[in-house]
Amino acid sequence: MEAVLITVIVCLLVLLIAIVRRYRLLLSELRSFTRQVEKRIDDEYNRPVRVNGFHSDIAELAVKLNEHTDAKRKLSIEYKRSREQLNNIVSGISHDFRTPLTASLGYLQMIEKSGLLEGKNEEYLSIAINKNEYLKELSDEFFELSKLENGQEEVAVENLNLSNMLSDALMEQYGWMQERGITPVLSISDGIVIEGNTVYVARIIQNLFSNAEKYAVRRMGVTLAETDKGVELSVFNDTDDETDIDADRVFDPFYKPASRKKGGSGLGLYVVKCLCEKLGARVTADIDIEGRFSIAIIFPLNR
User: 86: number of CA atoms within 13 Å, CB side?
Assistant: First the structure.
């Protein structure tokens, strides 16, 4: 009887050891499976998920997962190719559109300066010029966006004196501010230097000021300072009672408040967001209870 009991105990121990070994092997395979799945998320990783010693159902799961990720990768590649083709088409159309449009606008402006038109004809000419200017702005934005979204090359950066760039750009704004009685509120620290691309940063500043020009009623302000988060640039302005701005949507392409009377492409702030992303900067928008609209950009500190 004791011999039988010992035999049973030995068999149970052998079985337990086999189960433990099987469990450890299964756990090791699950960890390997998890690591491979995580790698498959990356579109650049092409190796299939492999399993050894798994139950047939788990092996079938790996097969289905490989098929799914392969299909997803093909769709992603096709989407990128289609988007590049669309951007190239938009870029080509915008480029071909800009030349005759610029010439047309030039001729209209020459007629305006001649002073030969009066009354309704002068009014119609003014409307035609405004519409042409809007189309030119739209084509310029489309052309720039197609270049931004197609550009795969690394952005060339250098040390930029943001304080000086901002001050120079502000000098160009005094014309419309004085004409409309806008009071500028400025707080620009001297000697603020960032790492950035001159063309990109200049375009960001230009678009921020252009946006403020469309909205401002009595006040417009600019602040620039170095904080513990980075270099913060903020452009703000008041708005009229009819302007209803959704701060969560201002960086969406073609977003324009329905009540805004002055036209625009609705792409200016979207371009700002795209450029900030390329420069590693963070941009946010806010509107307070008094209707003051502000855009803040935090550039990384220049190390």
Answer: 8
pTM: 0.64
- Residue 205 pLDDT: 93
C-alpha–C-alpha distance, residues 46 and 40, integer Å: 7
pLDDT per residue as tens digits for the range 11-51: 777 777 777 776 676 677 767 667 766 666 665 666 666 66
Percent pLDDT > 90 in the chain is 12
Cβ pair 194, 300 in contact under 8 A: yes
DSSP 8-state secondary structure symbol assigned to residue 234: E
Task: Give the integer Cα–Cα distance in Å for 220 and 235.
Answer: 8
Describe the chain by its helix, strand, coil percentages, rounded to 5. Answer: 60, 15, 30
For the beta carbon of residue 138, count every other beta carbon within 10 angstroms.
19
Cα separation of 294 and 303, whole Å?
Answer: 27
Instruction: Tell me how far apart the alpha carbons of residues 205 and 300 are, in angstroms, rounded to a whole number.
Output: 17
The long-range contacts involving 72-76, CB below 8 angstroms and separated by at least 24 positions, are: 73/43, 73/46, 76/43
What is the predicted pLDDT for the residue at 52? Answer: 64
Q: Rounded to whole angstroms, how far apart are CA atoms 213 and 191? A: 26
- Tokens for 203, please give them: 């375009």
Of 274 and 65, the one with more pLDDT: 274
Torsion, CA 171, CA 173, CA 176, CA 180, rounded to 10: -90
Task: Tell me how far apart the alpha carbons of residues 235 and 224 are, in angstroms, rounded to a whole number.
Answer: 9
Is residue 62 helix, strand or coil?
A: helix
For the chain, strand residue ranges (E) read 158-161, 183-188, 193-196, 219-226, 231-237, 282-287, 293-299
